[in-house]
Amino acid sequence: MSALFEPITLREVTIPNRVWMTPMCQYSAEPEGPLTGAPHDWHFAHYAARATGGTGLILTEATAVAPEGRISPYDLGLWNDTQLEAFRRITRFLTAQGTVPGIQLGHGGRKASTDRPWKGGAPLGPDAHGWQPLAPSAVAFDARHPVPAALTLDQIAEVTDRFAAAARRALAAGFEVVEVHGAHGYLINEFLSPHSNHRTDAYGGSYENRTRFALEVVDAVREVWPADKPVFFRISATDWLEGSGWTPDDTVRFAHDLHAHGVDLLDVSTGGNAAGVSIPTGPGYQVPFAARVKAETPLSVGAVGMITEAGQAQKILANGEADAVLLGRELLRNPSWARQAARELGGKVRVPDQYHRSV
Prior knowledge:
This protein has 11 helices and 13 strands. It has 359 residues and is α/β, with parallel strands linked by helices. Strands 3-4-6-9-10-11-12-13 form an 8-stranded parallel barrel, surrounded by 7 helices. A two-stranded antiparallel sheet has the order 1-2.
């Protein structure tokens, strides 16, 4: 059988195959009112379709740990119990389909408070449900974005506590996997990279200081997350900056640190922290970064980025470049990609009884 359809067990959670759904914001939550940040019918239908399509693990979109941590006012959050209860409907259905429900917890940092991409994605002010973003340093992402407020030490501790509180709610909501979002230029990534972190205190300067916040968040999440359930960390393996920024060498070094702090899998992406950089995109363009982490560290690894074909995904696993593949846009185009790939490669995924005619 194709390696793509072999189960994988992380701690005591068994994921039925290696076809996973990467987090993708839907920008569809209510921006204000009692249901702010709560998933509703759109989110249920979105995730349910990929579960009935055979996807082994579904990671929700970046779910904010605080209102000001949303990338847009229309993002999901998990800072209150109303949101928790709304997520339960989704996790119950995913679990019933044999799909493992996972959640990505994050904070938008200096790239928060932006409009939906189909509206242009511009920064939003208070007159359009927006707010002043927060960051490690008062350095704007680009000329279009406002200068963020630099976090105080007390605020850093508060954000860390917010991650832990959101993880507790995620567990109560029925999630089996939690992923800490440390990529794409959002808050944790901003602390990691010298490009965006200009602090001179214990959270800036040296590698040890710049990684301090990320590890404190991981520790806070791991403390409240059960020992029999895995914690993932998503990273941008490089800022794609020549001679500066976060590098692949930093990623390998940090992967060892994450492993020591109880992280089970590194979800390897790239970029997002520096504007105007040149990124050599193409099929599987981020896989070499995942492969290096897989070869040089004890962590399990997920590969992502323009993985679209069944044979391509199978080759990544067969070559030992990753333990799983995470699909994004391809699952938007084809919610039943896993079932289609199983037919092509001679594998098997769970098919709902109601869809038996399609087998």
